[in-house]
Design brief:
Strands 8, 9, 10, 11, 12, 13, 14, 15 and 16 form a 9-stranded mixed beta sheet that branches. Strands 1, 2, 3, 4, 5, 6 and 7 form a 7-stranded antiparallel beta sheet that branches. Helix content is about 25%, strand content about 25%. A hairpin with a 5-residue loop joins strand 11 and strand 12. Helix 2 crosses helix 3. The chain has about 300 residues and is α+β, with helices and mostly antiparallel strands.
Length: about 300
């Protein structure tokens, strides 16, 4: 995103129980998380002064830490309040929050049982992850050479920092080819997700098809959109989806806290329309998070409306 570097901004960051000046929120070179990836985090959005599904994000942060073998020294309620306070002190009403917890620097090596667990929350104003122009016509994806690992090789159900290394590699490679993002397959060759968002597609049958999240995050936005689809009488099918099926899809979109509901116009050589179901769920999600009011009309109606 355009703007000043993230380590050189005005404001405050919640850091281990207190608000510190933004530029002073630092960690030591020998922090375990920097060398061994022992950190977990969340991406959270505030809309019109309200943090969307904050409790679910805080609970997932604690669960991610447990999967990674450490305990965050704050309760869910305290994490919630830290997020609220970080927005308040920085005057944020529409923005993005990054709660993060990590192992400190008491031990330097693979083992780190005695390391202090730190916790911080940063909050800043942040526009849409993808540009309005890209969202209007649909972003482009290309299939990554990197694959999501099997559950017995990595903590795949934690929102852990180390799991995003292959996402960064994939997104950089996609952008170098002129695409917006990458489609990631899993170790079996099945469709999994994008680099930081879940994927849905309509196959010409009026139903939404989405991969089973058995080796990647079952996103909070993913679950929200599934609920919204069912509320609009759109059937959702969670199943194995193979890359060969991408040519059968008529509509494709991504979901995530950052991505929200973002249409996909192209995956490799396949092209898609920003169709009725996609538009309906884009607007339904905007209503759910408070970006538009219930009095505003939908862009289009679902098939059953």
């Amino acid at each position: 995103m355009a703007g000043p570097a993230y380590d050189d901004r005005d404001g405050k960051i919640y850091y281990d129980g207190e608000m510190v000046d933004w530029r002073d929120a630092k960690v030591h070179l020998l922090t375990h998380a920097l060398h061994y990836g022992s950190a977990v985090f969340e991406g959270v959005r505030m809309y019109s002064g309200k943090i969307f599904k904050l409790r679910e994000h805080s609970e997932r942060l604690i669960k991610s830490a447990e999967i990674m073998g450490f305990k965050i020294p704050y309760s869910v309620e305290e994490i919630d309040q830290a997020c609220i306070d970080a927005c308040t002190v920085n005057g944020i009403t529409d923005g993005y929050l990054r709660p993060v917890a990590w192992r400190g620097s008491e031990m330097m090596g693979v083992a780190a049982q005695s390391n202090t667990i730190h916790f911080a929350v940063a909050a800043w104003e942040w526009p849409s992850y993808f540009s309005p122009e890209a969202r209007a016509k649909g972003i482009s994806l290309t299939t990554s050479q990197w694959r999501r690992p099997p559950p017995n090789t990595a903590p795949v159900h934690a929102k852990a920092a180390g799991l995003y290394m292959i996402a960064t590699l994939s997104k950089h490679a996609a952008e170098a080819k002129g695409f917006t993002d990458s489609l990631m397959l899993d170790w079996r060759g099945q469709v999994a997700e994008a680099t930081g968002a879940n994927i849905f597609m309509e196959m010409g049958d009026g139903k939404l098809h989405t991969p089973i999240p058995d080796c990647f995050l079952d996103g909070i936005t993913r679950r929200t959109v599934i609920d919204l689809a069912r509320a609009h009488d759109i059937e959702v099918v969670e199943r194995v989806i193979m890359p060969e099926e991408l040519g059968n899809a008529t509509q494709v979109f991504l979901t995530g806290t950052a991505a929200e509901v973002t249409p996909v116009g192209r995956i490799d050589d396949h092209t898609y329309q920003v169709g009725e179901i996609t538009q309906t769920l884009m607007t339904a999600y905007e209503r759910a998070v408070g970006k538009v009011t219930a009095e505003m009309p939908l862009n289009s109606q679902s098939r059953a409306s």
